[in-house]
């Protein structure tokens, strides 16, 4: 995600005190909106001004203000050598020799074991993507789109063929969602510009959504998964309460926008059918317009223009709108049951300042507590075997 940014101000302010030595207590005190420091590999950086121009968005980097961001920095930047040059103007010093490398509740043994696992996986080439696979993935999406239109054009708009067309289009939309995810993470090509270009094409022209909207949400989600006020994916807009903490807080504050004791019943009527066709759709349009993101808006409109040109001659305007609504309805169910069911049953709480691996495990997996260092090495070998 490297590139760009306002380097002048932080560079000037940082150069006068680049030799500073700081404690964790001092670093942690710089965690508000107008004063933000973070630590990467024991180096202390002032990101107060840089955050505003951060290519990945100001929120995702601000979530680590006052913390050690080493693991997150490594995970988010595929080309570490390239982004290192943007760190130099921000450097203000380093941690004192008496300070540990990890802050707060982060497990040093787990961090070291995970670093060893990552180095082993990288040395074995397990992070190298196969472009042919992604080309075939894109090809089968385009094929599904073409076949869905072709069967209607050749054999008519009967209910049976319309339903088959809907299934094919919903499958293409869902598969495009997984594909844009990998391009959005810059994990397919070595050149970030190629990933960005394909990301905009897939999420914009093939899905009618916004690459920048997705990046803004999804980067935060991975940076601080299942953490209230930091992960947008657990912001339920008062429609649901999630985790073990939020229901108690709502009860104490007597917040009752919805009959939450019945949410397990109305979830089926609100969550799966409405997430993509209503909530995401409104949020995407609002985000592109409010941020004047005309490039993403053009990509998004190209999808709807293409769709209407293909299906209005076959179904008419009303029928075409009904068809795309049903496709979104099907896709939304698929998306919710595949993605949200991986996160919502897991630990959801306020910031606990866990190390990177623990934070990922408790939000993606049913592992409430990881074993102490040393005992995890057998698990690491098992993970490498699974990756193989």
State the main characteristics.
5 strands, disordered N terminus, five-stranded mixed beta sheet, 388 residues, globular, acyl-CoA (8-3)-desaturase, mainly alpha, lipid metabolism, EC 1.14.19.44, 15 helices, 60% helix, membrane
Largest sheet: 5 strands, mixed
Order of helices and strands: HEHEEEHHHEHHHHHHHHHH
Pairing-aware structural class of the strands and helices?
Answer: mainly alpha
Helicity range of the residues?
Answer: 55-70%
GO cellular component, one term: membrane
EC number: 1.14.19.44
GO biological process, one term: unsaturated fatty acid biosynthetic process
Subcellular location: Membrane
Could you describe the 3D structure shown?
With 388 residues, the protein is mainly alpha-helical. Helices cover 60% and strands 5% of the residues. It has a 5-stranded mixed β-sheet with strand order 1-5-4-3-2. Strand 3 and strand 4 (43-46) form a beta hairpin. Helix 7 (131-155) packs antiparallel against helix 8 and helix 8 packs across helix 13 (294-343). The longest helix has 50 residues, at 294-343. It is globular. Mean pLDDT is 88; it is low at 1-16 and 366-388.
């Amino acid at each position: 995600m490297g590139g760009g940014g306002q380097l002048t101000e932080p560079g000037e302010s940082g150069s006068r005190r680049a030799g500073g030595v700081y404690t964790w207590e001092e670093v942690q005190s710089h965690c508000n909106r107008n004063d933000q420091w973070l630590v990467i590999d024991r180096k202390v950086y002032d990101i107060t001004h840089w955050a505003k121009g951060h290519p990945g968005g100001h929120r995702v980097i601000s979530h680590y203000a006052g913390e050690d961001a080493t693991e997150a920095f490594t995970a988010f930047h595929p080309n570490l050598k390239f982004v290192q040059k943007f760190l130099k103007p921000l450097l203000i010093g380093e941690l004192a020799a008496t300070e540990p490398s990890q802050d707060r509740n982060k497990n040093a043994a787990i961090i070291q074991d995970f670093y060893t696992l990552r180095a082993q996986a990288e040395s074995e080439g397990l992070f190298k993507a196969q472009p042919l696979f992604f080309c075939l993935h894109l090809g089968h999406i385009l094929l599904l789109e073409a076949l869905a239109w072709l069967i209607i054009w050749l054999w008519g708009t009967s209910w049976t063929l319309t339903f088959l067309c809907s299934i094919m289009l919903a499958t293409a939309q869902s598969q495009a969602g997984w594909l844009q995810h990998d391009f959005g993470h810059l994990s397919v090509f070595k050149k970030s510009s190629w990933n960005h270009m394909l990301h905009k094409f897939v999420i914009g022209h093939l899905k009618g959504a916004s690459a920048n909207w997705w990046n803004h949400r999804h980067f935060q989600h991975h940076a601080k998964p299942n953490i209230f006020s930091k992960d947008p994916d657990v912001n339920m807009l008062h429609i649901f309460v999630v985790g073990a903490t939020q229901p108690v807080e709502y009860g104490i504050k007597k917040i009752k926008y919805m009959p939450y004791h019945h949410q397990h019943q109305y979830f089926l009527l609100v969550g799966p059918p409405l997430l993509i066709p209503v909530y995401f759709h409104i949020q995407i349009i609002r985000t592109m317009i409010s941020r004047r993101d005309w490039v993403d808006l053009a990509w998004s409109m190209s999808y709807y223009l293409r769709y209407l040109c293909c299906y209005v001659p076959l179904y008419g305007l009303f029928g075409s709108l009904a068809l795309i609504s049903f496709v979104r309805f099907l896709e939304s169910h698929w998306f919710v049951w595949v993605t949200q069911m991986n996160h919502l049953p897991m630990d959801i709480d306020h910031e606990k300042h866990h190390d990177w691996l623990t934070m990922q495990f408790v939000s993606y997996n049913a592992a409430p507590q990881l074993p102490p260092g040393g005992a995890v090495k057998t698990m690491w070998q098992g993970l490498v075997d699974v990756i193989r």
